[in-house]
Specification:
Shape: globular
Distance between the termini: 47 Å
Strand content: 5-15%
Radius of gyration: 18 Å
Structural class: alpha/beta
Number of helices: 10
Order of helices and strands: EHHEHHEHHEHEEEEEHEHEH
CATH class: Alpha Beta
CATH architecture: Alpha-Beta Barrel
Helix content: 25-40%
Number of strands: 11
Largest sheet: 9 strands, mixed
Length: 312
């Protein structure tokens, strides 16, 4: 049985950089050092792969629609998918109130209003009405699911077991990695792997090695998992200051794309709009830990931090 793969890219501005000039923030968030979203779209196109870009439209509260339009338009022109992301701190940045950095714990009515506002802004910026949502920082709980159900948003992808129970606070086992129906909203968890005594680690491009990514995909295929969900960010392939490419992470992204292109018959990349026949409630366990594999990734991370970040 084929396993589908969701390559998801959280696409957002990283914070407030003045009320009037958003351009520097945009440059360092959407296309830092030439390895942001345009580069990612190019590599995806070269390998004929599909990806979902979760776009946060809330900076429009502070800067207007233009930066959100400039995120949405190239993604859609490339034939990729735009879905809804939401960092709630932008509301406070815009109106001068205390920022609410996580939505976890907010009452249903407030979550409903925030998600509805974000959806309407995203559509005004040119995106189709979203069918999927991911909370900023994975900060979601049962009230989030109730709000999505009320708004008719079919999928949520906020459950991240390595971030549970806070801020990822959905009423699910941290080890839940298979899609599951939560009363009319399908939860599509971020895929996890085990790392021994350190617990779970999610499949984020900057968090796992190329070997771990490929072996997690092989594990899913061998065990008939219906879906693997991988996370990245618009700015993730650059250094934290946005001024230089991180060649380790760029290489990791390109290696992932090559692997998925080579395995496209059995590992099919997909958009959320193509998941109507998704198997729900399947048995799926995170890939088990191997000390040598974990040690290799830790060595890679140490090298990457020493080369690209410590000087900053």
């Amino acid at each position: 049985m084929a396993t589908r793969v969701l390559i998801t890219v959280d696409t957002e501005l990283r914070g407030q950089h003045g009320r009037d000039d958003w351009q520097e923030n945009f440059d360092r968030s959407f296309d830092p050092a030439g390895v942001g979203v345009p580069y990612q779209l190019k590599i995806l196109a070269e390998h004929r792969l599909k990806a979902c870009f979760f776009v946060d439209p809330m900076p429009a509260l502070l800067f207007g629609l233009e930066p959100v339009r400039r995120m949405v338009e190239p993604i859609l022109l490339a034939g990729q998918e735009v879905q809804l992301h939401l960092h709630s701190f932008w509301e406070g940045a815009a109106d001068g109130t205390e920022p609410r950095y996580e939505m976890t714990g907010l009452p249903f009515e407030e979550q409903l209003a925030l998600i509805a506002e974000a959806r309407d802004i995203l559509v005004a910026a040119g995106a189709p009405p979203p069918v999927s949502y991911r909370a900023g920082s994975y900060a979601a709980d049962a009230a989030t699911i109730d709000a999505l159900r009320t708004l008719g948003i079919r999928y949520d992808s906020s459950h991240n077991g390595s971030h549970a129970p806070w801020p990822s606070a959905l009423p699910l086992d941290p080890r839940q990695i298979a899609p599951v129906d939560l009363g009319g909203v399908v939860e599509v968890p971020v895929t996890q792997i085990e790392q021994g005594r350190e617990g779970l680690r999610h499949l984020q491009l900057c968090a796992v090695s190329s070997g771990e990514l490929e072996q997690a995909l092989q594990h899913a295929l061998a065990n008939d998992h219906p879906l693997v969900t991988i996370v990245s960010h618009s700015f993730e392939l650059a250094t934290r200051d946005g001024l230089r490419p991180n060649t380790l992470l760029c290489g990791r992204f390109e290696a992932l794309c090559r692997y998925l292109a080579d395995q496209r018959v059995q590992l099919r990349t997909a958009h959320f709009t193509e998941l109507d026949d998704l198997v729900l409630g399947a048995r799926a366990e995170p890939m088990g830990a191997r000390p040598l594999r974990t040690a290799w990734r830790m060595a890679e991370q140490l090298w990457s931090n020493a080369r690209y970040e410590r000087a900053l």
